[in-house]
Write a structure and sequence with these properties.
By secondary structure, this protein is mostly helical. The chain contains five helices and two strands; from the N terminus they run αααββαα. It has two domains: 76 residues, no CATH class; 36 residues. Helix 1 packs antiparallel against helix 3. The structure holds iron/sulfur cluster (SF4).
Amino acid sequence: MTAARQASDALTRRLIDLARQGIRPRCGDYETSHYWTSEHEAERKQAAQWCTGCPMFLPCGQAAEANQERWGVWGGRDRTVRPGKAAAAVWLYLLLASSAGVQLVWMIPLAHRPAC
Ligand code: SF4
């Protein structure tokens, strides 16, 4: 079993334990759950603040890290990668690699990777 799978399973088990106790994390609140995956950065920032004190904070963040989540708020952190940032990172990599003498033909698939 991969580390990512283990972290996801640990998160799921913890969520089930909480549900048995009648506890739901703030991101499960019907009124505000959309903040965690909002397209608006200010709303995701608010969601990250609402994560404070959540009993799921640690396993939630660990699962996100292990799975390299790139969208939404997990464990108090907005993990959303804006396409512009990803594209900039690719171009910076290409620039540095080409200046280091690496053949560009090996990097073409990297440049065509999806941004999210
Ligand atoms: S720490 Fe995770 S489970 Fe808790 S409110 Fe934040 S996103 Fe939801």
